[in-house]
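Now for a typical sample entry:
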Amino acid sequence: MKDIIKIHDTKKGKVINARELHAYMESNRQFANWIKERISTYGFVINQDYITFNKIVKRENGGGSKRIEYSLNIDIAKVFLFMVIDVSKTTF
């Protein structure tokens, strides 16, 4: 069984890390393209539905690079999950 995605409490409410959600959903798409497409397609609003922040990632060669991280509020995270549910296999 997979680990459940950690929920973080912030001043703006409960959020999850979008990169963790992406991994949990086992998407084959590159994270940056995956998140940007969903934000654009569904009209999510920065500082309301999600927030972004820069993170420095250290590389094995001693260097580092900056990447953009996304934190999604809980309601938006649920929308992301419902996008991948195969309704034809779900019993209501």
Q: What stands out?
A: The first helix runs from residue 18 to 24. Residues 11-86 form one domain. The first strand starts at residue 8 and ends at 10. Helices lie at 18-24, 31-42, 74-84.
